[in-house]
């Protein structure tokens, strides 16, 4: 018995360890330890997949190929960033020169240097735009009918270009040094009032600090991602427990409270029905008392006779209205010709009435 019990405990401990390994291997998978316990075959399948799939869901060969492609991409990025940073540094130098030229008069050698560098940059950009890509074999139409050879002819003299190239590393180094010092002042504003030598010495310690902060930011991102996954799991567990509690509460209400509530509602309903009947009877009594106080027996009989007369007249009016409507409907059948005759009849009746009125007035004047 003791041996069987020990074996059971060991298997149970191994199973728990297996579940933890599966959950750790698939952090983005929405699976709980309870799900793995209820589905042991699925748990074994996930444990087998952990040998062939990483945490991101990629297979081992695909992950290695992806890492190689990522390394190649990073090297290409570094080459592009190197050339791009150099190109932007030269453009910034030209912009600074233009600003200083507007504010003060500069020596002729600097004007010649920056003018030559700007011309060389523009010519190089134009040549790059005009030169078709080596990846395409089709002939491309020339922009504005220009060729790279025609644009190259716009370069300054060779001696001027050589002097510019000789002075370029020194000027570029000065420009980059000013940018680095400004970066140091931005990173640590309290170092802005210090000497240039002290800033230069502190500049050598800046890359490790930035690298350290970058690693700290990446660590914080990883921690935040893990906390997000943990929060999602805890939220799911909390919601499941909350649903169970709500179901239990509903069962409690339906089984125990509703019976008492039904009897209470029935008693309240009987009370309100009796109260409503009492109020209606009281209203009828008040109406009868008001009628008795307002009207006598003779007044009520007179009102009844008046009502009967009005109803008879109303019926006669309705009958007359219906007769007129029937006549109008019969006349409407005749159409527009009858409307013209009716208008003519109305006009003649108006003329006859006017002539009768004039004849009457004339007779009165004659008698007088």
UniProtKB/TrEMBL annotation:
GO terms for molecular function: microtubule minus-end binding. One of its GO terms (biological process) is spindle assembly. This is HAUS augmin-like complex, subunit 4. Signal peptide: none annotated. One of its GO terms (cellular component) is HAUS complex.
